[in-house]
Structure formats: structure tokens, C-alpha cells
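Training component of the fellowship. As part of building independent skills, the fellow (R.M.) carried out the full modelling exercise for a liganded target. The chosen ligand was flavin-adenine dinucleotide. The inputs are recorded below so that the supervisory panel can assess the work.
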Amino acid sequence: MARIRAYRNDAEAKVTGTARYADDYSFPGMLHMVPVYADYVSARNLAVNGAEALAQPGCIAVLTASDVPGNCRYGQIEEDYPILAEGTIRSWGDVTALVIAETREQALQAASLVKVTAEPMEPVLTIEAALDPYAPIIPEGKDSNIVVHHRLRHGDPEAVFDQCELVIEEDFHTQVIEQAYMEPESCVCVPRHDGVLEIYGSMQHPFSTRRFVSSFLDEPFSAIEVYTIPMGGGFGGKDDNAAAVCARAALGARITGRPVKLTYNREWSVRETYKRHPYRMHYKMGFSSEGKIEAVETTMYADSGAYLSVTPWVTWRSTAQCCGPYGVEHVKADVYGVATNNVFRGAMRGFGAPQVNFAVEQLIDIGAHRLGIHPLGMRRMNMVKQNGETVTGQILDKHTVSLEEVMNSVVHHIGYRKKYEQCSRGTSDNDELYGIGLSVSYRGSSLGAEGMDYCSCVINGQHDGSILLETGIHENGQGSESVMMLILAEELGIDRKRIRYRRSSTSTIPDSGTTVATRGTIMGGSSVVVAAQKLKELISSHIAQRLKCSSDEVTFHDDKIWGLTYDNSLTWEEAMKELYLQRVAPYAFGTYQGPDVSWDDTTGQGDAYFTYVYSCQCAEVMVHKHTGKIRVTNVVAGHDVGKAINRAMVLGQMYGGITQGIGMTLMEQVQEAGGKITNLNLGTYRIPRSTDIPEMEGIIIEHYDPLSLTGAKGIGEPAIELIAPAIANAVYHATGIRCTSLPLKIRPEDLS
Amino acid sequence: MVDVYHPKTLEEALQFRSSTGAVPFSGGTDIMVRYRTSHGVLPDLPWPIVLLGHLKELQYLRLRKGSLCIGAETTLTDVMDHELTPPLLKQAIGLMAAPALRNLGTLAGNIGNASPAGDAVCALIALDASIELASPRGRRVVSLDLFIVGPGRTILAEDELITEIIVPIGEGHISWYKKVGTRRANALSKLSVSADWAVDDNVLTHVRIALGAVAPVVLRCRDIEDDMTGMKLPEIALQREDLMNRYKCSITPIDDQRSSAAYRKQAASNLVGAVLDEMTGGR
Ligand SMILES: Cc1cc2nc3c(=O)[nH]c(=O)nc-3n(C[C@H](O)[C@H](O)[C@H](O)COP(=O)(O)OP(=O)(O)OC[C@H]3O[C@@H](n4cnc5c(N)ncnc54)[C@H](O)[C@@H]3O)c2cc1C
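Fellow's submitted model of the complex:
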């Protein structure tokens, strides 16, 4: 494997194991908190009796909803998630009480003695049951279990199906997935001498954490300071829930006046926190005899679980991307989120795209097979092209539409055409069957019409020539700090050793939204460019005279600041000293707002996202005839990321996304029995290990994106959203068997 | 709180065990996981334990009277890496857990755990292994097949310890192993098949096929093995489907978190088919 230069500001600490995560923090006088669950899936008249627990040695407090000074409920869209349950239990993950003790052992011991009683009710556990007109309504104050319904209306598919050469109707199902980050939730809250509550926690979003805590404690934002510390993964899973964990610890710290630590074990984390939505999708796709997709009609249901979380946003992305990267003229889509009493569903890397891609990219292959057209030709004919129109009516004329180029490079690299001919298609002369499969996608970058998009950056130049940098994007372990440093070094033409990323907190930089939706590099990076621009202007105006030129003639490169000739230059040390003598702070603040997007809720039409990442992944598999076991042997992935700022990290995201996607495709599934999760640990919820990882190759394709100030788009989520259908297609070409449910399973009796 | 005994010798270990009823603790990779409580807190063991993993006198591999004798406390890694270890056992251990666990886990523990999905047990039963049990009363040797009587149940007496595993060396034997798990490492078996046989002049002179995780204990179908023994290979090839079916009918798997009964039945019979193919050079 080729050596690739990589930069991480935390590499040494991570590699040597000295990075300190939330649970590594402790403070003098610190207390320990543990949550108390109740063995109910749906119940009312909840009563909690902590008397016996309180009498235990070391036990300091047993807290319930009645101890909460502020709003007990929270949510990003609707305030329906009970940080502490009040009266009603809607899922097995609901937390009913919090026990605080001097040690963790004592807290666990006391927690086991908290008496929780309630009146059980019949839980609603499936989408079908929830849609029954006589089903109990789960969300409070609503008249239906349908919590969201997105529509997309483009053309008139009904009228077109009749004229199609081939109409395929198929159902697809996807499963419940746990994010399975390495570090379970953990938080330490410390009351500070000035009354501010400091929070050190494992969460993706310091700002939403602050909002949760503030509303829960009924205190202003300024009284809560959330710090960024190293974090062991999130994959979307440490959004609202992790913030709720912090809010609980914060309540403990406020009530006791002492530092309080709440560290989850894996079982609590899997039991309580939200998962990837399982989907049930029905697709009807009509083709012309040449293979053109004429019309698509789809209805899909996502099980949202007991609380709303971000279900409306997840299902919105499924709506906007319901036809994959194909420009179909006639489309009708209805996408529903449905409440059940299952542990709730929320954000996970991919966010509503992996599910629809699993359906669409198989449908294309099915269509190609039935019409006798090569799957490549079929895709090429239908995919979005430069200046083409998407199913939401968006014209793609503001960036390079490179899907065909991306697909061609992957196909060429892996030798798809030849290998496609060699597929076993059900027969081989040994114990294994071979297949190759392909999928393509486009992914709207950042939030799109889902939410407000802006980000801030602070550059705090120091008078000795060193620089402190900070942005509103949060380091989740993905290397965002390093990327921002590389961008700043490039913008200022300086050695990056001058730059330190300062440990930011919610009190030092304005709220810049959440670090989700593959928006870190595009939004944070652009804000760095804006701030760097301002800083250069400021510096130029104060040193132009010394450089014997006008301020717009000053240039920044080779770690120096230059006038018009080689004799007129200043080192950063000299320039910063000059500013100091002039009593000028080399400080710049920049904000970047995402370009406009638009959406009409009634028709599902609009410019859904301001730009798209184009992707293709191709997988080779072996299926064992005796056991039906599927082994992925090789994957080649190509993604147009706009511009790769930290190449090794881009490849790392690709390989990680593929691996996590293989877990979803072949082995992962949260098992729910009567609303209770039975595989609560990673011993029984099996994710891929190093031994399951195939050969992988990543191809970085770069078409500078004019709407991103750095040219970069992103890679975090594109990497995971299309491997499942690539593998499913490969399995089909190996065995002749179509798997329309995840995880893929081949029964040995179906193989001859 | 739990009493932990750290004996200096086997003799001391046996004394502790017989006088206190302490439970044997070798690598602890089963015990520590089964009795875990919560992150950051020690496991909650319900009984006193006697540590054995450090006893050098029970860590060896040596030949004795045509058998390979393995000290019960030899780590899985050491057994796997040793030149005297039969290929079948090497293969089975190689697919157990992952390197870190194999550096701690022992054969005694895999046997003492008595799980129908014990991979080393499956291979050892196909190899017709027996084990030596010691107590202050003396020593006895029992066939491994008879030692395990149900899931988690053995005939180990209150004062006994497993001290040695005895594997007859089958000169010229051929073996075959396959494990099916959800992933390639750290996955307990959905099922596993270990086979050991010998052929002389186109006649099957000996055969043992052990099936893991398809019944309450690792299973051998002696009646079928007896019928096959003495048969000519082409005859076995002819009866392939029939033999596969007999195996399929003899196993009574269950549905559990790892797999379904239907899958286990089908896949086990397919793998028996693969063993027969290997034997007869068929397919
Ligand atoms: C992540 C993980 C993966 C695993 N993967 C596999 C796998 O793939 N295949 C597999 O078969 N197993 C697997 N195991 C289970 C376990 O590692 C093995 O069973 C191992 O061989 C146990 O050995 P040990 O020395 O650690 O046993 P211990 O935990 O020390 O003991 C296990 C049992 O044996 C008894 N025992 C121990 N020593 C003696 C003795 N000398 N005399 C009498 N009784 C004794 C103990 O009392 C206990 O009941 C896995 C475990 C984990 C945690």
C-alpha cells in the first residue's frame, strides 16, 4: 500500500493512548450517578420509591422528574423526549430515576433497590400495528401514530406506467442498527466557583447539549459551559441522547453542589439510545424498452420508535433522494414516520439514504436483468448529468456533475466488465460462488432544506507569530480540527506548526449548528477561509507601509508576508510585533452561511441541497454453497469529494464507511423482543472486526466545488450509503438469489 | 467480596478446592464475562475461586504411549502453536475468539465450560480425547465425550480439577474442520463440524464426525459412524445423500440469538456432505 501523508493534531495522543476521554476525567469530591430503568415497554401511573436505595451506604440522592427545575422534556424538533420519565413509560429505554452515591459501586448497589411500579399497557411494536385505526396513540397530544408525512410530486407516474415496457414492483426491508461507537456515553459536570456549570462529555454537539442542559435546569446559556474533549466516535448517535446524559449529570451537580460523573456501560447505551430507522419500502418502477426509467411510485414507512428525535429530517432525506441519483420525469413518493413503543430511532451516519439506496440500486439491476441491458448502460442512461434535473426539480448547474466519471473510474479500476461475465450465477465447480455488484449514489451535502446552515471561525493571532484557531465544528474523532488547521495554513501561506487549535467551548465561539450531515469540512472550512481573508486584510492594512506597497499588494506565502519585491518581506514574527507596536490585535472573526436552498412541502419540489457528492462502490463476494455464508473479498470506492484536504483522512472515512456498511449488510441487527432489546452488548450485537474487512481501495475524485470556499464537499456519509446494494447485487450475480431484506441472508437449501 | 486462592502447586490447589469448594478459574475468559456487572466495577462472583492459570506444572505438551498429553492449563495459543498438536485441533483453536483471548483461555476452561458451542471440545471429541481428573482422593481418566453431559453440566466432582487432556495420535488420519460464525473472529459458533478418518486400500477404516452447537452437547452419531466404517469409498459416495439425511434427522438444534434451528440443520447436513466429498474425492 502506498504511503500517504496525513496530518492529525491528536495523532500522538491517540496512538500512545494518552488522549483523555470523558470517563478519564475526575475531580476532587466527585460523585457517581447511575440511571434506573423500568422493565416496562408501555405503562402509565409510574411511581418511583427511592427510600430503600437512599438508606444504602454512600447513597446521596435519588432523583426523579419532580426534582427537575426546568423542562423535563427535550427534542431537536419536538420536546417529547423525557430526560426523566414523568408518569408514563413509552419505551424500554426510558430512564425513571437517577441515583447518586460516593462511589460507582455504591450507586449501582443503591440503584438496584429503587422500586419502580407502573400499570403496564399493551405496547405497539410494529408499523402495521401502529397504523391500525384502533391502535393506541403513542405521541402525547397527537391524533395519529404517523408523526411525519413527506410528499414528492413530480410529473404524473400513474399515467405513464401503462406505456412502460416493464414495470417492477418490489418490497424492501431494512433493519434496526446500533451506531456502536467505541466509547459509550459519559459525562462529568463540575460546578465552578463563579456559579457556571462546566461540562466534559462524550457528545457530538456541544451547543445542543447546552440547549438541553439549559432547558432542563432552567438556567441561561451563559451559566453552562460545554467543553470539547476527545471523543470515541458518534456516527450520529451522540446527538440528542448524549446531550440528555449530560443534562442528567448536570442536574446531579446542581443539586449536590459537587462534581458528578455519569458513565454509561454498553448495556445502558444500547438499551436507551436511539438507533438507525428500520424502513419498509414499496417501490413501483417503470422502464421503457431501452431501459429508461419512466416513472417511479413509492411508499415507505420508517419506524420512529417512541420519540420523534430527528425522524422528520431523516425521512425528508429519503424523500429528496427517493430515486437515487436518477433523473426520473414522473415520480410520486409518500414517506411516513410512524411512532411505536420501540426504543426510539434517530440520527445515524447515512441518515435516511442507505435505506432507499438499498432499494433503488437493486431495482436498477433487476430492471437491467429483465430487459437484458447491461447494468452499467442502464445506470449511465438514467443518471443525473450536467445541467440535468433531479426528481425535486433542481437543475444541477452550479457544480460539476461527475457521477459518470466516478462510475467509470471505479468500473475501470476493478475490472467490472470482465468480472461481471465471470459471475457464478448459481453454479460453480467448487464450494463457492463468485459475484460482483455495483451501486451509485449522489448525496446532498450538509443539511439542505432540513435546517439553518451557518458556521463561525475565530483566528486569534498572537504577537509572537503563533496562531490560535477555533471553529464551531466539533471534533468527533474524525479529524476536523486538523482539517481546519490545514485549511488555515493554506490560506495564510504559513507553516502549520504556527497553528494550534484551541480547545473550544460553547462559551468561546458562537453556536454554529451541529457537526452532522457531512457538513464539517464544507461549512467549517468555508468559515476558516472567510476569517483568514479578514485577517489578511487587517494585517495588510497595518504593514503595507513597512513593505513599501499598498495594502492590496501584500501577499502571504512561504511562511512570510510579502510586498512587491523580494527585499520587501516580513516574517510572521516581525509582522505580528509590528501590529503589537501599533496596538492592533491580529484577531479575525468569520462566518459562513450556506448558499440558499428551497423546498415546497406539499410537492416535495425545490433545490434540496446546494451541492452533491457523487459516489460509486463496487464489491466482490464469495458465497459458500454449504453454509450460505457471504464473504466480501474486495471493494473499490470512488467519491467526488470536491477537494481532498487531508487525503489519508478522506481514505480513512471511505474505508470506515465501507466497513460499517458491511456490518449493516451482513451481520448487524438490533433484536427486539416485545420492545425489549435482547442483544445489548457487542458480544451479541456483532459488528465487523479487522478479520472481516475485505481488500479496499478508495479513489478520490476532485472537482472543485464553487459553492464551497475551499472547494471541498465531504465524505463521512457518502462512504456508508451505498455498499449494501453493491453487495446485494454481487450476491445476486453469485447465486441468482435476490435479497430484499437486510441483513442479507442466503439459506443453504436455496443453493443447488 | 469473594475469596480468591492463589495456590503454589497443584497439590495446594486440590486442597483449597476440596476444603472450600472453590470454583476452578483458569484464564477466566468465560467466568469473568458471565459474572460481569458494569463498566468500571469488578465482576460479582457468587463463590470463592481457586486460580489455576499460573500453575507451570500443568502447562506442557508431551508424547506418552502413543498419545499427546496436554497440561490442562496450557493456553490456547501455546497449544495451537505447538508442533505436536494435531492439525484438527490447531484449526479449531485458530478460529476461536481472537489472539488476546487465546493468550488467556485454556483447554481446561473450554471443557469445564461445557458449552455445546465449545470449539476445542468439538475437535477433541472428533479426536477421541480423554481427560485426566485429579482430586485429593486420586486420579481418574474419563472420555471427554462422557465428561460433558449437558449445556454447562459435567461429571466433575466437587473436589476435582481437570489436569490433563489426552489425545491419541491417529497415524495417517485425515481431518477436516469447518466453523460457521457471524464473523471471522470473536464469534461463537452457529455450528461447527470436526471430522477425523482413516482410509486403507479404498476402505474407510475409521471415522469420527463431531458436530458442535447443534444439540445440547457436542454430538457424534456413533451408529452412522459404525455403518460407514468398513465401507468402500465409492459406496460411501453413492450413499452420500442418504448419509446426509441420517445426520440431518439425528440432530436437534435450537433457535437462539446466533442462528436458527432450520439453518443449523441444513448447514450441518451440507457440511457432512462436504466431509463425505473430501473423503471420497467426490464432487
Ligand atoms: C470474546 C470471546 C470470544 C470467545 N470465542 C470463543 C470461540 O470462538 N470458541 C469457543 O469455544 N469459546 C470462545 N469463548 C469462550 C472462552 O474463551 C473459551 O471457552 C476458553 O477456552 C475458556 O477458557 P478459560 O481458561 O478462560 O476458562 P475459565 O473462564 O477460567 O473457566 C471456564 C469454566 O471452566 C471451569 N474450569 C476452568 N479450569 C478448570 C479446571 N482445571 N478443571 C475444571 N474446571 C475448570 C471453570 O470453573 C468455568 O466453569 C470466547 C469468549 C469470549 C469472551
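The panel noted the following from the submitted structure. The CA atoms of residues 182 and 201 of chain B lie 40 Å apart. DSSP finds twelve helices and 14 strands in chain B.
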